[in-house]
Write a structure and sequence with these properties.
The protein has a single domain, classed as Porin (Beta Barrel), CATH 2.40.160. It is 8% helix and 69% strand. It is built from 1 helix and 10 strands.
Length: 208
């Protein structure tokens, strides 16, 4: 079995242990919808678009996760006249365990399906060629959800992403500011060193 398979098994085991916590997490909601701007800034490519994510708290310790994002890519290393759409779908789950009434340990594992389509001019070509492809993989994340203030939540996180030919560990910070009983502003920045890639999100969250 290769290292990727072992990592997936280990991640699943960790999530299972999280789900067996003795106390239910208090003060945090795990049923919500996020939506807003998403962007990628990297050495090899830049892209902008939108993303939406759904989390459903199935039990006191387990949530089911769904996600969709659409990015427009107009720049890529080695290509010109780039006009490519990237659709990404994720599905998976996670577990959370209450360390204190203001801190949760959270883990998640999702399947990733990424589809690209569009046109770009390759080196030596005089016209645009069609770009089309599908990449699959998974994303594993471990984070600490911290209620820093009554209306402010901070979540440092570590993400391992293995999709297609991309495989790297990223480090990020998520911030949520509640401005209404059900609504919050949310921002996230996660950095991957291999391609100097920064994944950005800026939007809102609705707690259900």
């Amino acid at each position: 079995m290769n290292n990727k398979g072992l990592l997936a098994i280990a991640a699943s085991a960790c999530l299972a242990m999280l789900s067996q916590g003795a106390f239910a997490a208090k003060g945090f909601n795990y049923t919500y919808v996020d939506g807003g701007y998403q962007g990628i800034r990297a050495d090899s490519a830049d892209a902008d678009g939108f993303a939406t994510d759904l989390s459903y708290g199935a039990t006191d310790h387990i949530m089911v996760l769904f996600g969709y994002s659409h990015l427009w890519q107009d720049e890529a290393e080695g290509l010109s006249n780039v006009d490519v759409d990237i659709d990404e779908f994720t599905i998976g789950g996670g577990g959370h365990y209450s360390i204190t009434d203001r801190i949760d340990l959270v883990g998640s594992l999702v399947y990733v399906n990424q589809q690209s389509s569009g046109k770009a001019k390759f080196p030596g070509e005089t016209t645009k060629d069609r770009v089309k492809g599908t990449k699959e993989g998974y994303e594993l994340a471990v984070s600490g959800r911290i209620r820093a203030m009554d209306k402010l939540e901070l979540t440092p996180l570590v993400v391992y992403r293995d999709v297609g030919d991309f495989s790297d560990t990223g480090f990020g910070l998520d911030a949520i500011y509640k401005f209404h009983k059900k609504w919050s502003f949310r921002g996230n920045a996660t950095y991957f060193s291999d391609d100097s890639a920064t994944n950005l999100f800026l939007g809102v969250r609705f707690d259900m």
